[in-house]
Amino acid sequence: MIAPVTAHCQRMFTLMGRIPDALLLLFTRIAVGHIFWASGQTKVEGWALSDSAVELFRSEYRLPLIPPEIAATMAATMEHVLPLMLLIGLGTRFAALGLFGMTLVIQLFVYPEAWWVHAMWFSALAWIIAKGGGALSLDHLLVRRMGSAHP
Predict the structure, then answer these.
(1) CA atoms of 124 and 33, how far apart (whole Å)
(2) SS3 annotation, the chain
(3) Which of the residues 15, 19, 39, 104 has an alpha carbon 20 to 30 A from that of 46?
(4) Which is nearest to 101 in space by CA: 75, 130, 81, 80?
(5) Could you read off the pLDDT of 75-96 as tens digits, one per residue?
């Protein structure tokens, strides 16, 4: 009775092990990018920074050393540009590193009690930083065209 179950589990594990890293990296890039993109969308009205975003940085986030107007502008810009870079896989490691830094600031200064959410973001971003964009990225295409070894 146990042998068929064990054999079935082994086949399933083998099948799961064949999922290409490139596909997993693409899904991870899309998922984590969406989190930050959605946050960035709450900070703008059309193409302009919203007054509510500045007020949020002034009254709730209260980052040290950075005026709320500058912090809100920086966050909104990074939350739009870096997720797009992740999506297309251009400068993927740098984009992930930027979002990793943002997450660190959020964890340390804004919502330290949400460590369990940030731990998931850190994990996904660390994997992207370590592996790059994968074969389904512009980084990979550019590296192949330029003949370099590391995307």
Answers:
(1) 10
(2) CHHHHHHHHHHHHHHHHCCCHHHHHHHHHHHHHHHHHHHHHCCEECCEECHHHHHHHHHHHCCCCCCHHHHHHHHHHHHHHHHHHHHHCCCHHHHHHHHHHHHHHHHHHHCHHHHHHHHHHHHHHHHHHHHCCCCCCHHHHHHHHHCCCCC
(3) 104
(4) 75
(5) 999 999 999 999 999 999 999 9
Count other Cβ atoms within 10 Å, centred on residue 105: 14
Give pLDDT, residue 147: 79
Q: How confident is the model at residue 149 (pLDDT cuts 50, 70, 90)?
A: low
Measured distance CA(2)–CA(8) in Å, rounded: 10
pLDDT at 55: 96
Contact indicator for 32, 99 with CB cutoff of 8 Å: yes
User: Contact at 8 Å (CB) between 74 and 117?
Assistant: no
> Beta-carbon neighbour count of residue 80 at 10 Å?
16
- Predicted TM-score (pTM) of the model is 0.89
